[in-house]
Write a structure and sequence with these properties.
- With 225 residues, the chain is of the alpha+beta class.
- The protein has one domain (3-224): Glutaredoxin.
- Helices cover 49% and strands 12% of the residues.
- Helix 4 (112-124) runs antiparallel to helix 5 (128-138) and helix 4 packs across helix 9 (175-192).
- The chain starts with a helix and ends with a helix.
- The relative contact order is 0.20.
Length: 225
């Protein structure tokens, strides 16, 4: 997402700030000026540094796959949804389901609604987290860009993943979880130069494109090696 789109996203979300209980998800928005001082994006990052995280990994695929794709994405990012809905199924069929590749999903929320959905995905827990991420990308148009308060629609969808009103409210008022997600986003910016979504690293090398052909070009030499 470009800086201009990022600004427009902020303006849109500011009119429908998500506040549940005593914690405002808008806390993430306060940290966003860091983008004005973003570092140059390196073409290659150390894999051992890239794989250091505080929160459990959200993984599509087998842990022992020889190739690891790390994706930084925002749940309200249309390009991220397009990847998950159209490109990822083809990668799953050819590489992930065959044990050759695993995709590690990292939250990089660009607005408070994205942060809220990331928190809900984390609260599902276990294998359900990745499934929740996929479902929310499939239904992004239903909750991300509607006018008015998004909370009722988010709850309606979250109920299908087992949330009650109490567990939904508890998740979205988990300040520690919000801080952990924000810390991961900040580290990605400062350490790896992540400044747009989606951003992909294939065994530590930044991927310049997002098509199936782009991934094949990056993955095939690693499998042969």
């Amino acid at each position: 997402m470009s800086d201009e789109l990022f600004k427009r996203s902020n303006n849109s979300v500011s009119r429908r700030t998500l506040i549940v209980g005593s914690v405002s998800i808008a806390a993430l928005t306060a940290a966003q000026p860091a983008f004005a001082q973003r570092p140059a994006a390196p073409a290659q990052v150390p894999v051992d540094e890239l794989m250091k995280v505080d929160l459990p990994e959200i993984v599509f695929g087998k842990a022992d796959a020889p190739v690891t794709i790390v994706e930084y994405a925002s749940m309200t990012c249309g390009h991220c949804a397009a990847f998950h809905n159209t490109v990822l199924p083809k990668l799953k069929e050819k590489y992930i389901d065959t044990g050759k590749v695993r995709l590690v999903f990292r939250e990089f929320p660009l607005d408070n609604i994205a942060a809220a959905v990331s928190m809900l995905a984390r609260c599902v827990g276990g294998d359900g987290t990745a499934a929740f991420v996929s479902e929310m990308f499939k239904r992004q148009q239903e909750w991300a860009f509607q006018q008015g308060n998004p909370v009722p629609r988010l709850f309606e969808i979250s109920r299908q993943a087992g949330f009650t009103q109490a567990s939904f409210d508890k998740c979205l008022t988990d300040d520690k979880l919000l801080q952990q997600i924000e810390a991961g986003r900040k580290r990605a910016t400062e350490k790896f130069g992540v400044n747009a979504t989606p951003t992909f690293f294939v065994n530590g090398k930044r991927l310049p494109g997002v098509t199936v052909a782009d991934f094949e070009k990056a993955i095939e030499p690693l499998l042969k090696g």
